[in-house]
Amino acid sequence: MVHGGGHVMFTRKEVNLRQVRLLLDRGFLPISIEYRFCPEVNIRDGPMTDVCDAIRWAREELPHLPILGAQRQGLRIDPERVVVVGWSTGGHLAMTTAFMSRLRGIKPPEAILAFYCPTDYESEWWQKPIYPEAAVHGPMDPYDLLEGVQERPIASYYPATNKNVPSMLMSLDDPRWRFVLHMNWRAQTLPLLLNGLPAKSQASSSSPESNYYNLPQPSREQIASISPYSQILRGNYRTPTCLIHGTADDLIPWQHSQKVVDALRERGVDSHIEVLPDVEHLFDTFSNKCFTEIDRCYDWLAEQLKKA
Questions:
Q1: DSSP string of 187-217, one letter each residue
Q2: Can you tell me whether residue 10 is helix, strand or coil?
Q3: What 3-state class would DSSP assign to 161?
Q4: Considering only Cβ atoms within 10 Å of each terminal Cβ, which end of the chain, N or C, has fewer?
Q5: Of the candidates 289, 204, 177, which has an alpha carbon nearest to the alpha carbon of residue 244?
Q6: Pairing mode of beta strands 241-246, 83-87
Q7: Which stretches make up the Alpha/beta hydrolase fold-3 domain (predicted)?
C-alpha cells in the first residue's frame, strides 16, 4: 500500500483503514510502506526505487519473517502473488512498478489498483498552472520555497496545518505544502520531481534562490521515464491494472485514467476502470461515498490473483 502526498509528504499511516479491511476480507496481508520524498532526492532514485524495493522485500524476505500468530491463524505468505495499491501520487508510484521493477531485475506485481493518480506526465496538463481548490492561499502570496528542503531525504512528514482538521487544506504556512502549491501554481511538477531542489545550505552561491522558482522543463525522455502512459505505449507496461477516478477531480484529469485503460486493453492487458460522476480528488479520504465502486475494484484485484 502506497500513500499519497504529492511525492513530498505524509506517512505510511495515511492509508484508508476501511480499505485495509476490504483487503483483509479478501485474504490479502496489507502492508503500508514508506519511501523517500522529493525534492531532497529525485523521483526515480527515491520514491520509484523504494517502492520497487518493497516488492522485492515482499517476494524474497517477508515469507521468511516470523509473524506473530501466523501459524495459529493459518496465515501463509505467497511471494508469487503480490499486488500494489496506491492513492493519488501513491497510485502513480504503484503504477511505476509495472516497468521500473523490470529495469531493476525484480518481478513486477501481479496486479495494480490505483486511485485518482497521475498517469500521463507527457500531457500538456502538467505544463500549465493548476489552481487547487483546497488551497487556503493564492499564487500571488509570497513564500520561501527552499525553507522546507532538508539536508538529507526524509520518508515521513505530516503537516502541522492539517492536524485535527477533517479536510485536506493546502497552506503556505507549512513548508512542504509550499512544494505542492508551487508545483501546481507554476507548472513546476516535473522539474521538481525529476531534478529536485537543494537545501538552502547547498544552493549555489552564484545562483539566486529566485532561480529555483521557475526551472526549465525536463527533456521528453526524462518525463517518459516516469510516465505510466508513455511506458504502456512503448510496450514496457504489461501489468493488469484497475483505476478509479472522479470526473470532478481538480488536480488530475480523469480522462488520463480512461486513456490508460484504453491503451492497456488495445494491447491485451487486463484492465478495469471506475469513472465516478461529479466525484472529487481524495473522495474516499473523509467519506464513505462510492463504496460500491471501490468494493468492485477490490473484487477485480482478488480475481486477478486467481489468474496468477
A1: T-HHHHHHH----TTTS-TTS-GGGGGSPPP
A2: strand
A3: helix
A4: C
A5: 289
A6: unpaired
A7: 2-121
Q: How many CB atoms lie within 10 A of CB 266?
A: 11
Backbone angles phi, psi at 84, to 5 degrees: -125, 130
The answer to whether the pTM exceeds 0.85 is yes
Closest CA to 230 of 45, 129, 95: 95
Other C-beta atoms closer than 10 Å to the C-beta of 123 total 18
Q: What is the pLDDT of residue 163?
A: 75
Phi then psi for 242, rounded to 5 degrees? -120, 130
Domains in the chain: boundaries: 17-124+228-307
Q: Running DSSP on this structure, what letter comes out for residue 159? A: -
Whether 95 contacts 89, CB under 8 Å: no
CATH code: domain 17-124+228-307 is 3.40.50.1820
Largest CA distance in the chain: 64
